[in-house]
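help with this record:
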Amino acid sequence: MKEKRTNNLTLKLISVALAFLIWLIVVNVSNPDIEMSVTVPIEVRNADVLTSADKTYSLDEKNVRISYKIRTQFRNRVSASDFSAYVDLEDYSITGAVPVYTSVLNGKSNIVGSVSANPLVVHVDTEDIQRKRFDKDSGNFTAITKGAVADGYAPGEIETETDYIYVQGPVSEVGKISSVGIEADITEASEDVSGEATPVFYDANGNIITDTDPRITLSRESVSYRVPIYKIKALSITAAVSGELAEGYEFNEVDCSPSFINVYGPEEILDEHNTINIPASELDITGASRNVTRSVDITAYIPDGLSLAEPANEITVVAKIRRIATVTVTTEEQENETDGQEVNIQESQEAGETEEGTQHVQETSQAHETSAVHETGPDTENETAAVSGGDTQNDSPEESSGRSHGL
């Protein structure tokens, strides 16, 4: 009886062993080990080994491919975030080659195995670091506006919280940057605009550099700005002349083209001004016998605190010159002489006429009365009219003066 029980135990052990073997066979057939891979970025550790020596670096490979083995049933439980790959710059040598290390994260090391990286070694390129200052005084730090303000307004000069900025990075990359600047959008603005803008880099042709090396750093990530917006006002333009004209000519008037110009600035200053006066020193007509034309840079005469609202700054000023009218008076005596007749001039105290008085009347008539007029201006022909001397003596001074002004 005892022997029978012993034999049954042996059979049981054999059965368990066979079952385990069968289970192993089933597991290996239905849930085998498979090889998988993921791509992960390469982390750099102990970078200060180079940066403390004023060096910057770059890797010839930015990513590494990690291969591993895992049971089929666990394949969906592992991703790229469960692995890391890194290089340690303490391993850096003159050859520039450093090994790539890998590790399994998040407790997944118990279900993955045979972990390896490709490539196993990467090359580290080093370069000197440059720190360059860009400032407004040098013209390589700029602040500009984009867009157009509302009608009747003009933007003032953009103001920034700083006049300079530092750029740091590899010498070769910093050398590509010609200037740094910010842009402020003022589209349809009718009042002051303020905000913050991220600096952008420009090349030598003034184009924005879009593919900036990530190793480039700025002393400021953003710059605050303010753009004053001013009203526009039209001011009339007047001008004076200086100097003496040629004999026989007189000054008529000054014509300015354009006669108005738009300016902008603080409202309290705009309210104080309605005209811009061009001084006589700009228009010298000494010895002139025809119109005098000058081009004047109006910016020199814009009132303090105001600016031109348009790019054109040249004003054309014309001093108009004309010939003085010449008067010829034919007396009754001269008419009679022309007809071959003689006239006897009688002295008369009652009439107040003397030979000297007659001469005085003739001279006065020649200066103020228009009996025969010879007037020549820059664009006119001579005109002649004859007036009787007898009529001259009968006219009152008021009538004579009125007729002279009418010429």
